[in-house]
Amino acid sequence: MRSVALSSNESLANLLKEERRFAPPAALAAAANVTADAYAEAKADRLAFWATQARRLNWAKEPTETLDWSNPPFAKWFADGELNVAYNCVDRHVEAGLGDRVAIHFEGEPGDSRTITYAQLKDEVSRAAHALQELGVAKGDRVAIYLPMIPEAVVAMLACARVGAPHSVVFGGFSADAVSSRIQDADAKLVITADGGYRRGKPTALKPAIDEALQSCPQVEHVLVVRRTGQETAWTEGRDVWWHEITERQSAEHTPEAHAAEHPLFILYTSGTTGKPKGILHTTGGYLTQASYTHHAVFDLKPETDVYWCTADIGWVTGHSYIVYGPLANGATQVMYEGTPDTPHQGRFWEIVQKYGVTILYTAPTAIRTFMKWGDDIPAKFDLTSLRVLGSVGEPINPEAWVWYRDHIGGGRTPIVDTWWQTETGAMMITPLPGVTETKPGSAQVPLPGIAATVVDDEGHEVPNGSGGYLVLTEPWPSMLRTVWGDDQRYLDTYWSRFKDRYFAGDGAKKDEDGDIWLLGRVDDVMLVSGHNISTTEVESALVSHPQVAEAAVVGATDATTGQAIVAFVILRGSATDSAELTAELRDHVAKVLGPIAKPKRILTVSELPKTRSGKIMRRLLRDVAENRAVGDVTTLADTTVMDLIQSKLPAAP
Ligand code: 6R9
After folding, report:
1. Residue 549 resides in a domain
2. What is the mean pLDDT of the chain?
3. What angle do CA 146, 151, 157 make, to 5 degrees?
């Protein structure tokens, strides 16, 4: 990782001024699940606070100890407690008489739908748990899951949790190579996949990638195959088993075994910028405590009346914590959607919100900026008045995109919770609370109750308000990663060696005059222009604040005079047309908003930006383009043709 020398407190830019403020709606605040008292309570006794939150769960054996930090940074939370995650997510709601409550409103991309109640989910999870055991999966064995966004993905994860077999979900868009290296690293014994899924209006096969991947994974004994599309599927006799055939004949009664709080729940691989993917390990009790608490607090979830929808894929941590574990532990009713936002039309999301009366929506800045680009008239055609809380996750949200989200999706009424967290943190860490915090567009603002985060300079000293530096977490938290699977040293090196006794998140951040935290992107992306550290996020936000710009990605390209020069790639809004006048205007606009130092040297208009499959902009590739290099590894790109498109549009570099 490139280390960024922070020369002074003005580092990482501190230029963008955002004056807009939005108070929580009075009615929401009056009935909010969590009030300002939670901060005081957690401050008075952080561990007692988390011990209280752990009681949201049903423990087979109540924990007597909260945190064991005797061997830092290897944490144990609630170590002597025992519980079953699947029991907490499903059975206990049925036992409480809520079996008829809808757990999942499934909406397939072709328009098929299924409604699954908690009672039905309990039966399905129980049958799947029996099936896993019949196939020889025992407690501690790893199971790889490679599925589209269908209810069986949730059932499979919960069945693994039930029998104590840690799952490793691999995003259904990944290649055979990526799947194979992850299966090998986790030494998985069983793979759960499907014949295919629907994507952009047509069935796409999944199983061929598994067949190819398994050529180098001899330890895999069985492949369990869900039938989703009905397409022709190659079959290996003795190894492959149809999901419906084996589950149909199982009992719907399955006794959940209590697992130790520190029993591994899942491994999830993060690609990172270099090297082989890291298998982030999460365990049982602390993870579920924080996933459940944050989902309850940050979305103000009222399980009796809310209809919740998180648009992430199950292959990412957001899908793990905020489609599966958090919402189901809380007995929520949620929407699950299989496909893309523009199939068969660009209003599909809003049609779904209207159809199910969605009240809480959780999505990513990349999606919001895409909706801005498509135009205000599209959401305007649908009834979105059911919405009452909107969430954002995955990247910094530009203030303009934030305000657009609030106005055009939230009808100017809804609070927006901009939630900062990572695969490694397991659950949300820094975010406003919808009934408490006066929000500021573009800022994740404050650590949650029970979470300790701050911003430090190069030497690890906390910076004063109004200054920038590195985001660190200063106390252990319940849903923290426990290690990198099979590689404790990498866990220490990556997260705990940059600053003594603090977790280094890898993100740049600043504290504003009120002490609120603004995330400024990965430190690897920070630009150094004429001796000033400038964050890509702030220049991008300045560009997006121009009415003609929908989306922007900014990189620093090597420059003989200034060290690095700012090069911006912008996507215009639907109505705007590209011209030399407009680019000149945009450069001046940035200079006006941020100061002349941040004025981009070049601005290129493009129709798409390179993004990872979870929607994060891959600036590394744009840097290659800006520096006239051959474009590097594109395997994690969602759409590899994007780079060709961008390059074909490029004028010869000056
Ligand atoms: C949950 C998730 C983690 C990285 C993180 C940061 C960026 C996520 C953000 C945000 C600014 C937010 N990130 N949420 N940046 N504001 N609200 O996305 O996990 O895929 O592991 O990515 O995403 O850079 O370090 P993951």
Report:
1. yes
2. 93
3. 55
Cα separation, 103 vs 154, in Å, equals: 11
Report the CATH number that the domain containing residue 493 is assigned in CATH: 3.40.50.12780
Max CA distance (Å), the chain: 72
On whether the CB atoms of residues 87 and 125 are closer than 8 A, the answer is no
Domain of residue 583: give its range.
530-649
- Residues 155 and 35 occupy one common structural domain: no
Tokens of 317: 């941590």
Q: Is 25 exposed, middle or buried (0-12, 13-18, 19+ CB in 10 A)?
A: middle
Q: What are the pocket residues of ligand 1 if the criterion is a CB atom closer than 6 Å to any ligand atom?
A: 270, 316-318, 393-396, 418-423, 444, 505-507, 519, 522, 614
Is the pLDDT at 640 greater than 90, yes or no? no
Q: For residues 555 and 461, state if they share a domain.
A: no
Peptide bond into 399 cis (omega under 30): no
Q: In terms of residues, how long is the chain?
A: 654
- Structural domain count, the chain: 3
Q: What pLDDT, on a 0 to 100 scale, did the predictor assign at position 481?
A: 98
CB 65 within 8 A of CB 79: yes
Given pLDDT bands bounded at 50, 70 and 90, which one contains residue 11?
A: very low
The residue whose CA is least distant from atom 10 of ligand 1 is 395
End position of a domain, from candidates 523, 542, 563: 523
8 A C-beta contact, residue 633 and residue 612: no
Transcribe 364-411 into DSSP letters: -HHHHHHHHHH-THHHHTS--TT--EEEE-SSPPPHHHHHHIIIIIST
Supply the DSSP string of 519-541, one letter for each residue.
EEEEGGG-EEETTEEE-HHHHHH
Give the closest residue (by CA) to ligand 1 atom 11. 396
Tokens of 455: 């911003």
- b/e burial code for range 370-400 (CB count within 10 A of at least 16 → b): bbbbbeeebbeebebeebbbbbbbbbbbbbb
User: Each residue of 145-168: pLDDT tens digit?
Assistant: 999 999 999 999 999 999 999 999
Residue 586 has pLDDT above 70, yes or no: yes
Note whether 463 and 417 are same-domain residues. Answer: yes
Kindly give the distance from the C-alpha atom of residue 393 to the centroid of ligand 1, in angstroms, as a whole number. 6
Q: Is the pLDDT of residue 10 over 60?
A: no
User: At 219, which CATH number?
Assistant: 3.40.50.980
Taking the C-alpha atoms of residue 365 and residue 642, their distance in angstroms, rounded to an integer, is: 19
314-337 burial string, b = 16+ CB within 10 Å, else e?
Answer: bbbbbbbbbbbbbbbbbbbbbbbb
Do 540 and 515 share a structural domain? no
Cα–ligand 1 centroid distance for 203 (angstroms): 30
Give me the amino acid identity at 562.
T
Whether 629 has a pLDDT exceeding 90, the answer reads no
For residues 161-177, give the mean pLDDT: 95
Directed axis angle between helix 641-649 and helix 619-626, to 10°?
30
Give the pairing type, strands 196-199 and 202-205.
antiparallel
Residues 333, 338, 339, 343, Cα dihedral to 10°: -70
Asked whether the beta carbons of 445 and 460 are under 8 A apart, the reply is no
* ipTM of the complex, rounded to two decimals: 0.99
Could you tell me which residues are annotated as the binding site?
199-202, 318, 394-396, 418-423, 507, 522, 530, 544, 546, 549
In terms of C-beta density within 10 A (0-12 exposed, 13-18 middle, 19 or more buried), how is residue 253 classed? Answer: exposed
